[in-house]
Amino acid sequence: MNTFNKGIEKVVVALGWDPSPIGEPDIDLDIIAATYSADAPHGEPAYLVHFDSRSPDGTITLNRDSRTGQGFGDDEVLTLELSRVSERYSRVVVGVVIQQAHGRKVFGEVENTLVEVREGYTKLARNDFAGVEDATAAAVAEFVRDAHGEWRFQHVLRGFDTDPETFTRVMGN
Prior knowledge:
Blueprint: E1 11-16, E2 29-37, E3 47-49, E4 60-64, E5 76-80, E6 89-98, E7 114-119, E8 122-127, E9 137-145, E10 151-160, H1 164-170
Antiparallel strand pairs: 1-5, 1-7, 2-3, 2-6, 4-5, 6-9, 7-8, 9-10
Protein backbone atom coordinates (compact mmCIF):
# COMPACT_ATOMS: atom_id res chain seq x y z
CA MET A 1 0.00 0.00 0.00
CA ASN A 2 1.40 3.35 -0.96
CA THR A 3 -0.53 5.67 1.34
CA PHE A 4 0.17 7.61 4.52
CA ASN A 5 -3.31 6.83 5.87
CA LYS A 6 -3.26 3.45 7.51
CA GLY A 7 -6.57 1.71 7.52
CA ILE A 8 -7.92 -0.40 10.31
CA GLU A 9 -5.77 -3.47 10.81
CA LYS A 10 -7.16 -5.33 13.82
CA VAL A 11 -10.36 -4.75 15.79
CA VAL A 12 -12.27 -6.38 18.58
CA VAL A 13 -16.05 -6.41 18.83
CA ALA A 14 -17.11 -7.07 22.42
CA LEU A 15 -20.64 -7.82 23.60
CA GLY A 16 -22.06 -7.88 27.09
CA TRP A 17 -25.43 -8.28 28.79
CA ASP A 18 -26.83 -9.18 32.17
CA PRO A 19 -28.01 -12.71 32.88
CA SER A 20 -31.70 -13.47 33.22
CA PRO A 21 -33.29 -13.07 36.64
CA ILE A 22 -33.26 -16.21 38.79
CA GLY A 23 -35.95 -18.62 37.68
CA GLU A 24 -36.15 -17.16 34.14
CA PRO A 25 -34.76 -18.95 31.05
CA ASP A 26 -31.24 -17.96 30.00
CA ILE A 27 -30.85 -15.25 27.36
CA ASP A 28 -28.24 -16.04 24.70
CA LEU A 29 -26.90 -13.27 22.44
CA ASP A 30 -24.46 -14.11 19.67
CA ILE A 31 -21.99 -12.06 17.62
CA ILE A 32 -21.91 -12.97 13.93
CA ALA A 33 -19.53 -11.72 11.23
CA ALA A 34 -20.48 -12.00 7.55
CA THR A 35 -17.73 -11.61 4.95
CA TYR A 36 -18.59 -10.53 1.41
CA SER A 37 -16.57 -10.98 -1.75
CA ALA A 38 -15.36 -8.02 -3.80
CA ASP A 39 -17.52 -9.07 -6.76
CA ALA A 40 -20.70 -9.37 -4.63
CA PRO A 41 -20.32 -6.99 -1.64
CA HIS A 42 -24.08 -6.93 -0.99
CA GLY A 43 -25.04 -10.43 -2.06
CA GLU A 44 -24.90 -13.61 -0.04
CA PRO A 45 -22.03 -13.75 2.46
CA ALA A 46 -18.99 -15.68 1.25
CA TYR A 47 -18.70 -17.09 4.77
CA LEU A 48 -19.94 -16.55 8.32
CA VAL A 49 -18.15 -16.58 11.64
CA HIS A 50 -20.21 -17.35 14.74
CA PHE A 51 -20.12 -19.65 17.77
CA ASP A 52 -18.23 -22.88 17.07
CA SER A 53 -16.64 -21.46 13.90
CA ARG A 54 -13.94 -19.17 12.55
CA SER A 55 -12.99 -17.84 9.15
CA PRO A 56 -11.35 -20.38 6.81
CA ASP A 57 -8.04 -18.49 6.99
CA GLY A 58 -8.21 -17.74 10.74
CA THR A 59 -8.43 -13.96 10.32
CA ILE A 60 -11.80 -13.66 12.10
CA THR A 61 -12.30 -15.61 15.31
CA LEU A 62 -14.79 -15.74 18.13
CA ASN A 63 -12.58 -15.71 21.19
CA ARG A 64 -15.32 -15.90 23.78
CA ASP A 65 -18.88 -17.21 23.62
CA SER A 66 -21.44 -16.98 26.41
CA ARG A 67 -24.86 -18.59 26.50
CA THR A 68 -26.04 -16.77 29.62
CA GLY A 69 -24.37 -13.36 30.01
CA GLN A 70 -22.84 -14.47 33.32
CA GLY A 71 -19.39 -13.43 34.39
CA PHE A 72 -17.33 -10.27 34.53
CA GLY A 73 -16.34 -8.14 31.56
CA ASP A 74 -17.17 -8.99 27.97
CA ASP A 75 -19.45 -11.98 27.43
CA GLU A 76 -18.59 -12.46 23.76
CA VAL A 77 -15.50 -11.25 21.90
CA LEU A 78 -14.88 -11.35 18.15
CA THR A 79 -11.42 -10.49 16.78
CA LEU A 80 -11.04 -9.34 13.17
CA GLU A 81 -7.51 -9.23 11.75
CA LEU A 82 -8.54 -7.19 8.72
CA SER A 83 -4.98 -6.56 7.50
CA ARG A 84 -4.71 -10.32 6.85
CA VAL A 85 -8.08 -10.77 5.08
CA SER A 86 -7.65 -11.82 1.45
CA GLU A 87 -8.15 -9.16 -1.23
CA ARG A 88 -10.99 -11.35 -2.57
CA TYR A 89 -13.11 -9.87 0.21
CA SER A 90 -14.13 -6.21 0.39
CA ARG A 91 -16.71 -6.02 3.15
CA VAL A 92 -17.35 -7.48 6.60
CA VAL A 93 -20.59 -6.85 8.50
CA VAL A 94 -20.84 -7.67 12.21
CA GLY A 95 -24.18 -8.31 13.84
CA VAL A 96 -25.73 -9.46 17.09
CA VAL A 97 -28.66 -11.85 17.27
CA ILE A 98 -30.77 -13.04 20.20
CA GLN A 99 -31.33 -16.79 20.20
CA GLN A 100 -35.06 -17.49 20.40
CA ALA A 101 -35.03 -20.95 22.06
CA HIS A 102 -37.25 -19.89 24.99
CA GLY A 103 -39.72 -17.66 23.16
CA ARG A 104 -39.39 -14.36 21.38
CA LYS A 105 -37.03 -11.84 23.00
CA VAL A 106 -36.11 -8.36 21.76
CA PHE A 107 -33.20 -6.14 22.77
CA GLY A 108 -35.45 -4.00 24.96
CA GLU A 109 -36.06 -7.06 27.16
CA VAL A 110 -32.36 -7.80 27.73
CA GLU A 111 -30.81 -5.90 30.63
CA ASN A 112 -27.64 -3.84 30.22
CA THR A 113 -26.73 -4.77 26.67
CA LEU A 114 -23.58 -3.17 25.34
CA VAL A 115 -21.52 -3.70 22.20
CA GLU A 116 -18.18 -1.99 21.63
CA VAL A 117 -15.91 -1.88 18.61
CA ARG A 118 -12.29 -1.29 19.62
CA GLU A 119 -9.05 -0.87 17.75
CA GLY A 120 -6.37 -1.32 20.38
CA TYR A 121 -7.30 1.06 23.20
CA THR A 122 -9.43 3.27 20.93
CA LYS A 123 -13.21 2.83 21.06
CA LEU A 124 -14.58 3.21 17.56
CA ALA A 125 -18.21 2.64 18.60
CA ARG A 126 -20.28 1.91 21.68
CA ASN A 127 -23.97 1.06 21.57
CA ASP A 128 -26.63 -0.20 23.99
CA PHE A 129 -29.23 -1.22 21.33
CA ALA A 130 -31.68 1.48 22.53
CA GLY A 131 -32.25 2.48 18.90
CA VAL A 132 -33.40 -1.04 18.00
CA GLU A 133 -35.13 -2.12 21.20
CA ASP A 134 -37.95 -3.93 19.32
CA ALA A 135 -35.53 -5.95 17.16
CA THR A 136 -34.34 -9.53 17.64
CA ALA A 137 -31.10 -8.93 15.72
CA ALA A 138 -29.00 -5.96 14.63
CA ALA A 139 -26.11 -5.12 12.33
CA VAL A 140 -23.69 -3.13 14.54
CA ALA A 141 -20.52 -2.54 12.50
CA GLU A 142 -19.34 -2.56 8.92
CA PHE A 143 -15.80 -2.70 7.58
CA VAL A 144 -15.24 -1.81 3.92
CA ARG A 145 -12.04 -1.96 1.89
CA ASP A 146 -11.39 1.40 0.17
CA ALA A 147 -9.86 2.12 -3.25
CA HIS A 148 -6.35 1.90 -1.72
CA GLY A 149 -7.06 -1.52 -0.21
CA GLU A 150 -7.29 -0.15 3.33
CA TRP A 151 -10.10 -1.13 5.67
CA ARG A 152 -12.46 1.60 6.93
CA PHE A 153 -14.97 1.37 9.77
CA GLN A 154 -18.58 2.46 9.35
CA HIS A 155 -20.78 2.61 12.42
CA VAL A 156 -24.20 1.11 11.75
CA LEU A 157 -27.18 0.14 13.84
CA ARG A 158 -29.86 -1.58 11.76
CA GLY A 159 -32.45 -3.65 13.56
CA PHE A 160 -34.10 -6.78 12.18
CA ASP A 161 -37.08 -8.77 13.39
CA THR A 162 -36.09 -12.22 12.23
CA ASP A 163 -34.75 -15.58 13.33
CA PRO A 164 -30.97 -16.13 13.58
CA GLU A 165 -30.67 -18.15 10.36
CA THR A 166 -32.52 -15.60 8.22
CA PHE A 167 -30.51 -12.80 9.85
CA THR A 168 -27.27 -14.26 8.50
CA ARG A 169 -28.66 -13.93 4.95
CA VAL A 170 -30.03 -10.37 5.27
CA MET A 171 -27.72 -8.61 7.73
CA GLY A 172 -25.55 -7.17 4.96
CA ASN A 173 -28.41 -5.76 2.88
